[in-house]
Amino acid sequence: MRVRTIGLALLAVFTLSGCYEETSVILHEPGVYKGSVDPSVTNPRTAEEQEKLRARLSEGQDRQ
Amino acid sequence: MARMKFLCDAERCIECNGCVTACKNENEVPWGVNRRRVVTLDDGIPGEKSISVACMHCTDAPCAAVCPVDCFYTTDDGVVLHDKDLCIGCGYCFYACPFGAPQYPQKEAFGVRGKMDKCTFCAGGPEEDNSAAEFEKYGSNRLAQGKLPMCAEMCATKALLGGDGDVVSDIYRERITKRGGRPDTWGWDTAYKKA
Fold first, then answer.
1. Residues of B in Cβ contact (< 8 Å) with A50
2. Closest partner residue to A37 among B64, B126, B167, by Cβ?
3. pLDDT tens digits for range B19-56
4. What's the pLDDT at B109?
5. Cβ contact (<8 Å) for B70 and A30?
6. How far apart (Å, rounded) are the C-alpha atoms in residues B176 and B161?
7. How far apart are the C-alpha atoms of B168 and B158, rounded to whole Å?
8. Do the Cβ atoms of A33 and B73 come within 8 Å?
């Protein structure tokens, strides 16, 4: 009887151990870009060009 | 430096799918790939709301973090782009993206996937600006021409805003202020419904 009880307890422990869930979140950090160079990265937009884009977005917008 | 962002005003979107069509037409997106989609919440029920979804050009892009070949980069404008010459079509970015932005054209039989394709904010890719090679791989480079993404510029109801994040938020804030209250599209009640 005792052997059976111990056996059942061990079985329960082994069974429940499978229910363990890893709760820590794996965080990935982006690596270093390995592709070819984009001209827009090497020649960033000038302040004037950026302002033109801003104006283009603002004009004609319905703000209601 | 500007950070380019999209924002879809759900109170204005009428699910016309004009943005989807404009994107496909402007960038000659292949069959089976949609860089932009319109998602409708509670479709067919009174009070349904639609939003246009594409790559959101995340500041801390999860697609870039999981890419095993490091083919993603972010431009000074905050646009997340990738190099198709490096992409191996593994699909990790698709699993990482909360918006389902990465798409894969079916290239061969047995479901073999091609290079990943996604919204470029109409900023092309790592090729010479507005070259034939750039258009073939990534589509149009409207930003280099001093224009904004076609989807946002084509939006008939001005629901889809795309451009400098500061301007986009200013426009949206003004709209919300004039309407009064807050939009009821987002929030816990939308996500989990009322108990």
1. 1-2, 164
2. B126
3. 999 999 999 998 889 999 999 988 898 888 899 999 99
4. 77
5. yes
6. 14
7. 11
8. yes
Name the CA dihedral angle for A28, A33, A38, A39, rounded to a multiple of 10 degrees. 110
Q: Which tokens hold the place of B165? A: 């994040």
pLDDT over 70 for what percent of chain B? Answer: 94
Separation between Cα atoms, residue B119 and residue B188, nearest integer Å: 28
> Model ipTM?
0.82
CA distances from B168 to A39, B91, B188 (A): 26, 31, 24
Backbone angles phi and psi of A54, in degrees to 5: -60, -45
Other Cβ atoms closer than 10 A to B177: 11
B41/chain A closest Cα distance in angstroms: 23
Tell me the domains of chain B and their CATH numbers: 4-178 (3.30.70.20)
User: Is A18 touching B (CB cutoff 8 A)?
Assistant: no
C-alpha to C-alpha distance for B60 and B45, rounded to whole angstroms:
35
pLDDT higher for B188 or A3?
A3
A54 at B interface, C-beta within 8 A? yes
A45 has a pLDDT exceeding 90? no
A28 at B interface, C-beta within 8 A: yes
Q: Decide the pairing of beta strands B49-53 and B72-74.
A: unpaired
C-alpha distances in angstroms, B19 versus A52, B72, B78, B86, B130? 23, 25, 21, 29, 22
